Amino acid sequence: MRFQKYLWRLLPAVALVFTGLIARAQTTSETAIKNIVLVHGGFVDGSGWESVYEILTKKGYHVTVVQNPTISLADDVAVTKRAIDAQDGPVILVGHSYGGVVISSAGDDPKVIGLVYICAFAAETGDSVLSLIKTAPANAPAPPILPPQDGFLFLDRQKFAASFAADVKPENADFMANSQVPWGLAAASAGATAAAWKTKPSWYLLTTEDHMIAPELQRFMSKRAGSKVVEIKGSHAIYISRPDAVASIIELAADGTAAR
């Protein structure tokens, strides 16, 4: 009898604790960052994000893949901002390669609360892809970019796999080489209009076997941005060869910004 009386006295306290746990769980769920916007780089389109998209959507994230024309930086920033505007809440903005210049510029949007650079150009205001490439160490592999054709850039098809996609299946790398998207010289040479990493937290996936953006240049940019860095052995096409690692750092960013 005494135990029953004691138990009845405890029930209100237990109920209060239980209610608090539910409320905390609900708050965590409500504040978790679920909107992810993915921005591709030059020479490719958004289809390369497919595996990353599948991993994240299966985990409950709302993922938008931007299809930038890559003709001018201004247009790409505008297209990316339209994708950001379409989201229903806070956004984690992710950029690969040239996409880093795009997200550095578009990331000043108030909806963007975190940036993720995937072996990307974490640009300072005024930095362009072509200006940053020139700062790479002299002994670093040079991207096999051909002379402009009618104002557009292409990679040497014979050298595409070794420079861009060394750890991608050969047949896939060959397809990528032969389905290149013309990259506007105007986009590659345009300076970033903002450096969103100065006011937003950022994460950086650094690829140590990258022959497009030298790892030393990636270290410089990620350190300058104050990014949380994860290094991984992989090529410039890490988002295709290791989508699990790319999805993982995006989740880190979503969790990290939610905790803030």
TrEMBL record:
Signal sequence segment: 1-25
Could you list the residue ranges forming a coiled coil in this record? none
Q: Does the keyword Zinc-finger apply?
A: no
Keywords assigned by UniProt? Hydrolase, Signal
Hydrolase: present as a keyword of the record? yes
This entry's Gene Ontology molecular function terms read: hydrolase activity
- Could you tell me which Pfam families the record lists for this protein? Abhydrolase_6 (PF12697)
Q: Domain AB hydrolase-1 spans what residues?
A: 36-248
Protein name per the record? Alpha/beta hydrolase
UniProt organism field: Alloacidobacterium dinghuense
